[in-house]
Model the fold of this input.
Amino acid sequence: MKQGIIFDLDGVLLSTDEMHYAAWKSVADELGVPFDRTVNNRLRGVSRMESLEIILEKSTRPFSAAEKEALATRKNDRYRALLQSLTPDAVEPAVRETLCALKARGFRLAVGSSSKNTKLILRLTGLAPLFDAVSDGTNITRSKPDPEVFLKAAAFIGLAPADCAVVEDATAGIDAAVAGGFTAIGIGDAATYEKTEIAIHSLSEIPEKI
Done:
């Protein structure tokens, strides 16, 4: 019997994919670097700097470390400006209901996301009070598929990985969950991934499968 559940944020609890895409697209367009949704799909579940490296693969010139930092900051500033439009309505009612039901059953809930904007998003959507802990890009040095973000989330809620499940929509996140010794629950694209242990189509299925 699992005692804790760790949720990825984007693509699991809500989606800000379009905001990420718009922010990265604006930066790529200014650089004259080709960027489309196929490239954007490669950015799912990885850090901001790793995402930038993927985008710059198609650049015709090299960039210094300082230039890369500036570009990543520019993207994040634009993304954060778009995030300000988020409200609790951005979260599907079934998601909130499921989280409340899991808490009522005594599960310890945490968020494990590589985004440094995690706490802002949770606050703007009203989800923050539903979680016992948050592990995000502000407290890790390695991104998924490294399990660090989930291992720290488990530590924050006082549980061993074997006592926790991780809910992910990206294959890199499933890889991280498996590497860390967690039960891997896949939703969205990750539901059909070979390493996924429990496949779901909606978060409302979790209480029945865990």
Remarks:
- The mean pLDDT is 95.
- The CA atoms of residues 66 and 72 lie 10 Å apart.
